[in-house]
Write a structure and sequence with these properties.
The protein is an alpha/beta fold and 486 residues long. The protein has eleven helices and 17 strands. Helices cover 23% and strands 24% of the residues. Bound molecules: beta-L-fucopyranose. The site of beta-L-fucopyranose has 4 residues, from loops.
């Protein structure tokens, strides 16, 4: 244990190359938010469709009990830190009174055409201490400009500018790669670089999701996560969702249930990256809906995911180095359904209670090596703060941390975090219990930690735990250990 690893010159050079890939501050802030709410709302809410055709009359949009505060309150109670609203879905209908089209709320009966759902949601977010993000579908089945090259890019940019300048701070622009035009449909070439430039200029702190450079789509809409979700990946992954011919088509129910293709399981191990010249820091997001559809359909009222299912996905996604984006669609009246609200509140209570009391604070903590490169003691890991971290010397890839309590503890979860401003380094770790007679029992073995790893330990009883980092790139730099009882 704690030997300096005998790197060959080449291996060290390669590991050094990997740890040079670090996140931008906006990505760190995004990952720290962990869990947010997606809201899908448009004319589809009134037609029962998942993809609108673009020729729906504006007058069908009429949420008579519209209450964005009810949405924000439910998201807050659910433990979420922000809301992302479909300001325009594929049907092209705008939830704000855009200057650039007639196909919007301004021609609906909602508030006699004086309403602005985007403003209402942005304001409600602020009131409830949530951040606000926008979804603006590049694929637009209504706009006469779609398929007309730069005429459509101008239209899209004009709309982006409206959204990015009129509704305060935006934490994410969610760029969906979906395009169901198919072979004989219209072909529109999106000017991604221009879109990105506009977003960076007008909202420099906003992350760009999906077809953009900051946050990666996990690759499925079923809530499935990878056991090892790496953040340092080949740079060309940022282009993967831009190719519309690879996009889903009309049978999108099958698409929503599709899991992860096993050939895409490993995106960032050393083995996977060794021949990749260009790498980027590109953390994943797990996005899925609380119901089978993204939009509200009354016939799905008895198909709302239950608490156990959401808790399981939370532990694997937020606890597996991804952000979690859970869609909760409003009804035609403009309210979230009471079933959805109830299950969200259960989830929020679980998150608040399960991680409220960090019993590591009362533990005697020691480590090997005894101190880090700065002379810090391992106690720095008791504070959940990226700026206090424990950094091994270069080449010392192993770290052992022991936690000991006066009395036996019942332990449900262990949380580990890396100081990701120094990249993602841990490749392998293990947790063990030390029994009174001194025997050691491994209770968990894992790979990726990254921003956050939640290790579910069931309900073990022990007075002494060991966390061992058994392999890391160059040297592990941890920032937090939390232990939570039953
Ligand atoms: C997909 C879209 O086609 C769905 O309708 C939904 O908006 C989902 C989040 O992204 O690609």
């Amino acid at each position: 244990m704690n030997k300096v690893y005998k790197y060959t010159e080449e291996q060290l050079k390669e590991d050094m190359r990997l740890v040079q890939v670090i996140p931008h501050q906006r990505q760190i802030v995004y990952q720290e938010m962990e869990f947010f709410c997606f809201i899908h709302f448009t004319v589809n809410t009134y037609t029962g469709r998942e993809w609108g055709t673009g020729d729906e009359p504006e007058n069908i949009f009429h949420p008579v009990k519209m209450d964005a505060k009810q949405w924000a309150k439910a998201a807050k109670d659910g433990g979420m830190k922000g809301i992302i609203l479909t300001c325009k879905h594929h049907d092209g209908f705008c939830l704000w009174p855009s200057k650039y089209t007639e196909h919007s709320v301004k021609n609906s009966p909602y508030k006699e055409g004086k309403g602005d759902i985007v403003k209402e949601v942005a304001d409600a977010c602020r009131e409830y201490g949530l951040k606000f993000g926008i979804y603006l579908s590049p694929w637009d089945r209504n706009s006469k400009y779609y398929g007309e090259g730069d005429a459509y890019n101008d239209y899209y940019v004009n709309q982006l500018e409206e959204l990015l300048t009129s509704y305060g701070d935006i934490f994410v622009v969610w760029l969906d790669g979906a395009c169901g035009e198919g072979e004989n449909g219209k072909y529109q070439s999106y000017d991604w670089d221009r879109y990105f430039e506009v977003i960076r200029r007008l909202q420099p702190n906003a992350c760009i999701f999906g077809c953009g450079p900051d946050i990666r789509w996990c690759g499925n809409e079923a809530g499935q996560t990878r056991p090892s979700e790496w953040s340092v990946v080949p740079a060309d992954m940022a282009d993967a969702e831009k190719v519309s011919s690879l996009s889903q088509h009309e049978d999108n129910i099958k698409f929503r249930e599709r899991g992860i293709d096993s050939t895409l399981m490993d995106l960032g191990s050393r083995e996977r990256l060794k021949n990749e010249e260009k790498l980027i820091f590109y953390p994943a997001e797990t996005n899925f809906s609380i119901r089978p559809g993204w939009f509200y359909h009354p016939e799905e009222d008895d198909k709302v995911r239950d608490f156990e299912n959401l808790k399981d996905i939370y532990l694997k996604s937020v606890g597996g180095n991804t952000t979690m984006l859970l869609n909760v669609p409003p009804t035609p009246e403009g309210l979230l359904h009471e079933k959805d609200v109830a299950v969200l509140s259960q989830l929020g209570n679980f998150i608040r209670e399960a991680f409220a009391d960090n019993i590591a604070l009362q533990a005697q903590m020691s480590s090997l090596p005894l101190t880090d490169v700065q002379g810090n003691d391992v106690q720095v890991l008791k504070t959940d703060n990226m700026d206090s971290y424990f950094e091994n010397p270069v080449g010392m890839r192993e770290l052992e941390i022991a936690l000991e309590w006066e009395k036996e503890q019942r332990i449900a979860y262990l949380v580990l975090k890396e100081a990701i401003q120094f990249s993602q380094r841990v490749e392998q770790f293990a947790i063990s219990c030390i029994r009174e007679e001194g025997t050691e029992e491994t209770v968990y073995e894992g790979t990726v930690i990254g921003h956050k790893k939640i290790v579910p330990l069931g309900d073990i009883k022990t007075r002494k735990l060991k966390v061992r980092i058994t392999d890391a790139r160059v040297a592990p730099i941890l920032s937090f250990i939390g232990v939570y009882g039953k």
